[in-house]
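Title: Comparing notes on inverse folding

I've been comparing how different people in this forum approach sequence design from structure. To keep things fair, I'm posting one structure and asking everyone to reply with a full sequence. Here's the target:
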């Protein structure tokens, strides 16, 4: 069966192996170091990426399917992963880099504000 992929805490990709009940999913993440465990569905952020694995399969089978499908590159393109990477990069900025970013943002907002005012005056 085709099972959904979860990107829970940023880069940690977990692959749904089996549905335990209506609220729990057995997940495994051999490529991201996530051990096989049961997770509540409301703690997951499901994506539309799928791998073709049998229900309840072993970690080795998941690893081979991931390599065959090139899933690491696909996960890097998911918007949730891109947001996590951007947030981590922003958190790693130093004082001066944050200052430069704020100055650039202020300048951009001033340009936008002045353009909006000009458009309001002309209409």
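Reply #1:
Here's my take.
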């Amino acid at each position: 069966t085709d099972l959904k992929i979860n990107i829970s805490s940023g880069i940690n990709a977990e692959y749904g192996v089996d549905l335990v009940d209506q609220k729990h999913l057995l997940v495994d993440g051999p490529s991201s170091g996530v051990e096989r465990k049961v997770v509540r569905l409301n703690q997951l952020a499901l994506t539309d990426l799928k791998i073709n694995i049998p229900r309840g399969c072993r970690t080795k089978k998941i690893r081979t399917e991931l390599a065959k499908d090139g899933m690491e590159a696909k996960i890097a393109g998911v918007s949730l992963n891109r947001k996590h990477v951007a947030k981590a990069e922003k958190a790693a900025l130093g004082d001066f880099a944050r200052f430069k970013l704020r100055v650039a943002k202020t300048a951009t907002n001033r340009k936008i504000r002045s353009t909006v005012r000009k458009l309001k005056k002309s209409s």
